[in-house]
């Protein structure tokens, strides 16, 4: 890159910063955990504002920290030919990797219920925080096809037994009166077209071997048979009905967590597939159905399950030329990421099938029985998010999607009481919502890594506990995101408290930094 390039560096650290123009401060509130939430109401919510590139020779940085900094901004002078002894991160722009598709969250029934439980003004405030230019730049929204556990009831769009032609296919009230209007409002706020992603949890019970939406069950018959073809046409009908509301989908997945439907007595909606069954269903049914529909350019993402199933699942499905020609990418969830290293799941999958992109489609905190439900102000969970996103990005993932856009203070509603956490927690009685530390953790990526940003090489001058990733945006600027999950950073035998005091940057660039500490 030339010396006129600009870098955004986004760091989590603990130094006090000055807010940028157009920004507003967090109204912090403590609920007894290790950090704070930012409270928003119908008339006020903190915002980083619009981000402007710094002049050549200067850098901008944005800081979030356990102590309460939230995307706080400052600008500084790049020190050229520095002879300092600090840790040096060097960007290698000639090392080019994947391009970003986007970041976002999921418009579940529960998310829609919680957003709509607020006053109209507070609803608008919440949607702006996610989707407007002054918000955090969400460009992806995952939409469940019919009910999931984050619904208040079990339903599909074709619950009439034997309706193989789907004559009675009908969107639910949850779609027509909640999700669709909110998606339209989000689209109106967004500066670009949202990338909508559809995932189904279960086929209608009459299509399934167990005759139920829940538990262990798969489609009756074999790929190419009438149930499999009807299930493929169900996808087409869904896309058709949403298109009537001017909502088009970038992609569909082959179904949420197919391994769950292979488990005994799985507690909520699921549809089991083996890798072989999914391969053949795509090849014989879903792929041809979409190709012959008005939506032939809609992407198909396989797996939509935990990455520990990789590279096995990808080998089975993508090695088949008949299925592979219809598929665009592999969708992964973050649960159990610690069980298998990213190198031997994401890394090997990319090396085997580089023509198919990797996309993270679901994550949430508070899912583990050992750390359950909502924790208002948990910084540890923000660090978990940032760590996972950096790890995914550094292993070829092109985007990352959170789970529910908003939940209530119990982590619901959820018909099976599978309560979890969310970046936004709604208190409808007070007509307020709380932006969790995880909201800002995501913001360090979603606001700055715009679609088309390309990951480049970055290396440290010495061994370090810092985690980092670097991208060149389409405007030529560079984004460097750094996570410090430790109270201090050791450098040359000395202990440093602030990343600003530790990290120096390659003199070939001006910088914008994003720090998380």
Tell me the strand percentage band: 25-35%
Distance between the termini: 29 Å
Are there runs of 5+ residues with pLDDT below 50, and where? 1-8, 11-21, 491-511
Distinct helical segment count:
11
In the CATH hierarchy, the architecture of the largest domain is Alpha-Beta Barrel
Instruction: Please tally the β strands and state the result.
Output: 26
Protein name: Glucosylceramidase
EC number: 3.2.1.45
Domain Glycosyl hydrolase family 30 beta sandwich: 452-490
Main location: membrane
Architecture blueprint of SSEs:
Elements: E1 6-12, E2 28-29, E3 37-40, E4 58-64, E5 72-77, E6 87-99, E7 102-106, H1 109-116, H2 120-131, E8 140-145, H3 173-189, E9 195-200, H4 226-243, E10 249-253, H5 275-291, E11 299-306, H6 312-318, H7 321-324, E12 329-333, H8 342-352, E13 357-362, E14 367-368, E15 371-372, H9 379-393, E16 397-404, E17 407-408, E18 424-427, E19 432-435, H10 437-446, E20 454-460, E21 467-472, E22 477-483, E23 489-491, E24 494-496, H11 499-502, E25 503-505, E26 512-516
Parallel strand pairs: 1-4, 1-22, 1-26, 4-26, 6-25, 7-8, 7-16, 8-9, 9-10, 10-11, 11-12, 12-13, 13-16, 17-18, 22-26
Antiparallel strand pairs: 2-3, 3-19, 4-5, 6-20, 14-15, 18-19, 20-21, 21-22, 23-24
Helix pairs in contact: 1-3, 2-3, 4-5, 5-6, 9-10
Family: Belongs to the glycosyl hydrolase 30 family.
Keywords: Glycosidase, Hydrolase, Lipid metabolism, Signal, Sphingolipid metabolism
Main location: membrane
């Amino acid at each position: 890159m030339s010396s006129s390039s600009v870098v955004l560096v986004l760091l989590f650290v603990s130094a006090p910063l000055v807010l940028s123009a157009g920004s507003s401060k967090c109204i912090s509130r403590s609920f007894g955990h290790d950090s704070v939430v930012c409270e928003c109401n119908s008339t006020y919510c903190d915002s980083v504002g619009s981000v402007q590139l710094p002049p050549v020779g200067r850098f901008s940085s944005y800081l979030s920290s356990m102590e309460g900094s939230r995307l706080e901004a400052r600008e500084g002078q790049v020190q050229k030919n520095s002879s300092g002894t600090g840790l040096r991160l060097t960007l290698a722009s000639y090392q080019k990797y994947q391009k970003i598709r986007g970041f976002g969250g999921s418009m579940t029934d529960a998310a829609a219920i919680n957003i709509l439980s607020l006053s109209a003004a507070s609803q608008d405030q919440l949607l702006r925080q996610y989707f407007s230019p002054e918000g955090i730049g969400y460009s992806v929204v995952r939409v469940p096809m019919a009910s999931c556990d984050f619904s208040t009831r079990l339903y599909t769009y074709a619950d009439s037994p034997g309706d193989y032609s789907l004559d009675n296919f009908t969107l639910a009230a949850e779609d027509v009166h909640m999700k669709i209007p909110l998606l339209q409002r989000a689209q109106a706020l967004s500066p670009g077209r949202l990338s909508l992603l559809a995932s189904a949890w279960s086929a209608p019970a009459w299509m399934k071997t167990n005759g139920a939406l829940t538990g262990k069950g798969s489609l009756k018959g074999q790929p190419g048979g009438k149930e499999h073809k009807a299930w493929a046409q169900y996808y087409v009908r869904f896309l058709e009905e949403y298109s009537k509301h001017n909502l088009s989908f970038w992609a569909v997945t082959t179904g949420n967590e197919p391994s769950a439907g292979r488990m005994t007595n799985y507690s909520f909606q699921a549809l089991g597939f083996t890798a072989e069954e999914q391969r053949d269903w795509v090849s014989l049914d879903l792929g041809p159905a979409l190709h012959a529909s008005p939506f032939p350019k809609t992407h198909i993402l396989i797996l939509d399950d935990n990455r520990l199933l990789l590279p096995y699942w990808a080998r089975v499905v993508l090695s088949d030329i008949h299925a592979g020609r219809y598929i665009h990418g592999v969708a992964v969830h973050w649960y159990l990421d610690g069980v298998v290293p990213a190198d031997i799941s994401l890394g090997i999958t990319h090396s085997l099938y580089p023509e198919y992109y990797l996309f993270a489609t679901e994550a949430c905190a508070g899912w583990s029985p050992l750390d359950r439900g909502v924790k208002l102000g948990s910084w540890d969970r923000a660090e978990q998010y940032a760590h996972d996103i950096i790890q995914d990005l550094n292993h070829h993932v092109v985007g990352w999607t959170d789970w529910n856009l908003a939940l209530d203070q119990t982590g619901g509603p959820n018909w099976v009481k599978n309560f979890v956490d969310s970046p936004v927690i709604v208190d409808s009685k007070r007509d307020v919502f709380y932006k969790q530390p995880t909201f800002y953790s995501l913001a360090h990526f979603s606001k700055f890594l715009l679609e088309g940003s390309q990951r480049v090489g970055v290396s440290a001058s010495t061994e370090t506990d810092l985690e980092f990733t670097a991208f060149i945006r389409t405007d030529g600027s560079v984004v460097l995101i750094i996570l410090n999950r430790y109270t201090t950073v050791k450098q040359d035998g000395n202990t440093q408290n602030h990343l600003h005091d530790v990290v120096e940057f390659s003199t070939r660039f001006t910088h914008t930094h994003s720090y998380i500490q």
